[in-house]
Write a structure and sequence with these properties.
It catalyses: a (3S)-3-hydroxyacyl-CoA + NAD(+) = a 3-oxoacyl-CoA + NADH + H(+). Keywords: Fatty acid metabolism, Lipid metabolism, NAD, Oxidoreductase. The chain has 302 residues and is α/β, with parallel strands linked by helices. The protein has 2 domains: 179 residues, NAD(P)-binding Rossmann-like Domain (Rossmann fold); 103 residues, N-(1-d-carboxylethyl)-l-norvaline Dehydrogenase, domain 2 (Orthogonal Bundle). It has 13 helices and 10 strands. It is globular, with a radius of gyration of 19 Å.
Length: 302
């Protein structure tokens, strides 16, 4: 299959909403599914937030194109309805293995026989829940980077169960939604980018837990020393506290749980989960530019 018209995205959070718009802006009809109407009610404001970034970052952007993309998005809290006509299903729900198994069992029972089943899991091993779908030969990973309209990578990773043609078709779908494709032929948790990035982020978090320096000092040192455009705590804000929290709590990262607890108490419980909320380790203006470090995370005020 080479014409993927109908796309369903499960989860409408920070990255899920970006995936929805990425597909809709590329001309796909997209169904956005979430478990409650409260989450879906946040989407119109999210579209306007993303619009500003598209306008700034994409050459040739027009509001007419964007409005047409929004018109191609429908929303639902009915999972069977969401996947009933899907050519592709993309899951972007929290990093909890049992939750993913439960959702994929329901999707596998309701989706058409031709549907490609894709997970955007950040750190779990897709083969650990492929069987829950009932169709492991059609199941694999398509991993998106945050701010996908700009960092438009599509890591396509097969499991040992994935049919070769489905692996190839997924790469074609990724190109159709304007991703640069990076095929990964052997399954590994974290793909390429997260296998490199997670240890780096956690090293920065350990410096903070040890009270070695404030986040903005750690970031600035990294950027000056390596010539990097962003430091690790800026990247935490882009990734989002929820994603980092679930990676820590769901993986072999016991030493990082005190940091996860702080992410929850200082951030998630207060609706301050990073760039998507306008405040994380830093406070941001409407254009997503840093205004100042968030005082809640400052130890010394350097």
């Amino acid at each position: 299959m080479s014409n993927f018209t109908n796309v369903t995205v499960l989860g409408t959070g920070v990255l899920g909403s970006q995936i929805i718009m990425q597909a809709a802006f590329a001309g796909k009809n997209v169904v956005a599914y979430d478990i409650g109407q409260e989450q879906l009610n946040k989407l119109p404001a999210r579209w306007e937030w993303i619009r500003g970034h598209y306008r700034n970052d994409l050459a040739g952007y027009t509001d007419e194109q964007y409005d047409a993309a929004v018109s191609r998005i429908t929303v639902t809290t009915d999972l069977a309805e969401a996947v009933g006509s899907a050519d592709v299903v993309i899951e972007s729900i929290p990093e909890q293995l049992e939750l993913k198994k439960d959702v994929w069992a329901k999707v596998g029972a309701a989706a058409p026989d031709h549907t490609i089943l894709l997970t955007n899991t950040s750190s779990l091993r897709p083969s650990d829940f492929a069987g829950a779908t009932g169709h492991p030969e059609r199941f694999l990973a398509l991993h998106f980077a945050n701010t996908v309209w700009r960092n438009n990578t599509g890591e396509v990773m097969a499991t040992s169960f994935t049919d070769k043609k489905v692996f190839e078709d997924t790469q074609e779908f990724a190109r159709q939604i304007n991703l640069e494709v990076f095929p990964i032929h052997k399954e590994i948790p974290g793909y390429i980018i997260n296998s490199l990035m997670i240890p780096w982020l956690f090293s920065a978090a350990k410096l903070y837990l040890a009270e070695a320096a404030d986040p903005q000092v750690i970031d600035h040192d990294w950027k000056v020393s390596l010539g990097s455009p962003r430091g690790p705590f800026e990247v935490f804000d882009i990734v989002g506290f929820n994603v980092a929290y679930h990676i820590i709590m769901g993986g072999p990262y016991a030493e990082m749980k005190p940091f996860a607890e702080q992410l929850k108490a200082k951030g998630m419980d207060r609706g301050r989960t990073g760039l998507g909320d306008g405040i994380g380790f830093y406070e941001y203006d409407e254009q997503g530019q840093i205004v100042r470090p968030n005082p809640d995370w400052v130890i010394y005020g350097d």
